[in-house]
Amino acid sequence: MLDDIDPFIGTAATDLPRAHGLAASWWWPKPQVGNTHPGATSPFGMVSACAYSGAYPTGYGRYAKNTEGVPEELFDRLEASGFTHFQQSGTGAIRKYYNYVRVTPMVQPLDSLGESWALRDEIAEAGYYAATLDTGVRCEITVGAKVAVHRYTFPEHRSARVVVDLSCGGLAIDLGRTVPLRAQVESMGRGRAQGTVVMEGVPLSVYLEADTPGWRQMLWYDRRLIDGGTRLDFDSIRHTTLRPFGLLLMGSVRAGQVVELRLGFSLRGCEQAKQNLERECGPDAPAFNVVRSRTRARWREHVSRVQVEGGTKSRRKVFGTALYHSLIKPCVAEDESPFWPDLGPYAYDVCTMWDIYKTQLPLLAAIAPDRFTDLLESLIRVCEEEGNFPIGYRMARGADRFFRQASALAHTALADAHAIARPGLDWSWALVHMVDDLRRMYGEDFFEHGVVHPITHTLDLAYAHHCTAQVARALNDRRLADDLERRGRQWVNAFDPATGLLRDSEFYEGGKWNYSFRLIHDMAGRIGLAGGDDAFIAILDRFFGYGADPVKQPGRCPGPTEMAAGYALNRFEGLNNEPDMEAPWAYHYAGRPDRTAEVVHSALTWQFGTGPGGLPGNDDSGGLSSWYVWASLGLFPVAGQHLFLINAPAFARAVIQAGDGEFVIETSGHRETPIGVDGIDRDPPPQYVQSATLNGEPLHAAHLSAADLHRGGRLHLKLGPEPTSWGSANRPPSLS
């Protein structure tokens, strides 16, 4: 899959062929842009590096902050003022975090620092990014887990420069700048320097080595050189007093001369940053090719854990890139917590659980189980240190934890990890924090009244009580389990029996239609509340646009009237919004897996493509991409329930390396179908699962347990052009 990865997918505004059929009736209100970046990354690595323009939200690209429709352009070209580190990946809302330690190769005076130059001849691969600045400097970057290596090829010049700006951070939008609170920089000569900046309450340290023999090395402040100075200290910095500062290397170059810059990073001081650099770059210089090769090998190891056979070139490229995007975040930095002294994993860039708990975390549990366990261990430690499980967690100290989005989502991942017997976690201690977290924030009102607004938090908390009850019962705490299960049944308080939908409330980025089809732990009861199978299916059919006319998507700067008309459709948002991710599989619980097949087929055909505009919306740290991975494999994880739902896959055969096992999904009767970018001008008909076997035995249910996948086995699906009764009688498990 490594050769199928295209890091440019999702970096520009959505640009997909006009949808046909069912997908043409879906309406997308959120920003139509993937918000990914093409920079160098390592699987779950602490460091990323990319060209920096200051654009929203990753620092790369051309776009201004946007919340609806096609994003506005901040610049009329791709440009960069240098190359920064620590980028977000595909997030939809971020202001001032990251993009630290800007490195700028220059053939201009220091006064020109901060100017941007056009980018051309960009290349991006897993672990590698390159571009040429308009100044004629060819720039290449690779990263390891905790290091970045820059390689610059200069044109001939008598006074070339490499400038390191430690004061830089954030974005070039309103309220987007990051201002360090404190900082110190030390120049040690012979191409070595180190420094620490406290950004958003976190001490970020860097140790630097440069291959620049004969060049001058100087500190600078406010774009003025400090001749002979070896150290800068700033004890208290404010927005009004900040002036840029950093290190400069300067000398003459002949045409084609290469300069290498190596940076080691740590959240625990300069000495550990130096150790990280030495460990990953080794004793010999240059180190660029060594680091690039090792990172590429790590990517090959990770993406090879899912192999597919068949598919058009375009479909394979979209799939390979989706798998890549699913494995960039969260960052898991071993022994790097700046907030507690113990060794062990420190996970950040959980931005946010709302984006990733349904699809990405189950994918990590399957194909990157050690990193999955590290993440959970780190979240438990955060809860221990800060008082609750975060919904979002960045490399920052403070209260920006996204509690408006959702409540108690870590419980789903913990319940799944316990069910598949993941080693390495103290489950008695984990249960303590799971229970305590349920009664914080919105959980206090839920505990007292059994319902809370925003109403979606009622569903979150009821589900989290159910998930926690499963862990408590497995640990033989029956009294606690009974109490948790009783409270978990209060999901019913969120619904209006008169409509079969959620009660009126305020909603985060959506409405009651988007949130009404979540896969809760009592879907049989939820379908009964809506009036039974036929009534529930009728509501779903309306939501997905069966029989509806095509709609027009919002353009740039859509007006209130246009947006209100779109919202009034109460329509599926076509993977442009997180609450819709699981909705297609709600049909399974009403005995209509054929409907799931039709919706998912339409989404895979029309909502994803190649090229920079190939995503229908924000990738959200891999949440959207991991949906694509599962949907293409013909599976959907029901997070927190140790369950997978089965659907017709997009490939003839797939192999998942889940832990030590190998789970094979094979088909008979599979028909290759193109995707929209392959030039089709019609809606290709879907395929349906007509019968199935699991490890050679007939499988009459359209679901299997997560244990079946994790222990390895063989799922054979017979596909055909017409649905049968397969999966309609044997429903997925439900409390009722």
TrEMBL record:
It is an enzyme of class 3 (hydrolase). GO terms for molecular function: hydrolase activity, acting on glycosyl bonds. Its EC number is 3.2.1.-. Keywords: Glycosidase, Hydrolase. Residues 5-201 form the Glycosyl hydrolase family 92 N-terminal domain. Residues 272-720 form the Glycosyl hydrolase family domain. This is GH92 family glycosyl hydrolase. It comes from Paractinoplanes globisporus.
